[in-house]
Design a protein that fits this description.
It is a single chain. Helices cover 40% and strands 20% of the residues. It is built from seven helices and seven strands, in the order αβααββαααβββαβ. A four-stranded mixed beta sheet has the order 4-5-6-7, sandwiched between helices. Strand 6, helix 7 and strand 7 form a beta-alpha-beta unit. Helix 2 packs across helix 3. It is globular and about 50 Å long. The mean pLDDT is 89.
Length: 182
């Protein structure tokens, strides 16, 4: 398949990536942590992206008068592999793990994008903390998604900023409950 990286090295890289799941990917930080060059970690990441194992979500930025995030976020496309690498083997272990929200976000994000393959997908964030987990652009419409692992989701100031600054046509909040909220 053309992968020339030793299996042991790739497994260690997978473990490193598990810590970045749902977070901004900083290649220089990862390279320093892994003890290789930025070129090497970018190459390793591109192999896993090409194999459809990792999703790199590009940041959306436009001139909205705020400093915006410009590093991609990365997600495991298979939550089972993520959980294994994090040492999570049962649901009760996931419930007490600090990655449960990021795990949920990655799962939901992948499910949305499977159903919307023609949409352009991004995330958005500012250096002041406003963010949007997923921004889909499709047929001239902008749809935002906030993915929350909570029992009672609510609209936050960050969401209101995203709606205003990005000119969203719709904002959806996805959570693991069964009640609908306006």
């Amino acid at each position: 398949m053309g992968v020339t990286i030793p299996a042991v090295t790739l497994k260690k890289f997978w473990s490193l990536l598990a810590q970045y799941h749902g977070q901004q990917w900083n290649a220089s930080e990862a390279a320093a942590s892994f003890g290789v060059s930025q070129t090497a970690v970018r190459h390793y990441l591109s192999i896993l992206e090409g194999g459809l194992m990792i999703r790199s979500l590009t940041p959306w930025y436009q001139n909205v008068g705020k400093r915006q995030v410009k590093m991609p976020k990365i997600y495991f496309r298979d939550s089972g592999i993520l959980h294994h690498l994090l040492g999570i083997h049962e649901f009760k272990e996931l419930e007490s793990n600090n990655k449960k929200g990021a795990s949920w976000e990655g799962y939901v994000l992948d499910e949305i994008l499977k159903r919307r393959p023609d949409a352009d997908a991004y995330f958005w964030g500012t250096h002041n903390g406003a963010e949007l987990d997923l921004l889909l652009m499709e047929r001239g419409k902008r749809t935002g998604y906030e993915i929350k692992y909570t029992d009672s989701p609510r609209v936050t100031p960050s969401m209101n900023i995203a709606v205003k600054d990005l000119g969203l046509d719709r904002l959806n909040i996805i959570y693991p409950g069964d009640k609908s909220y306006p």
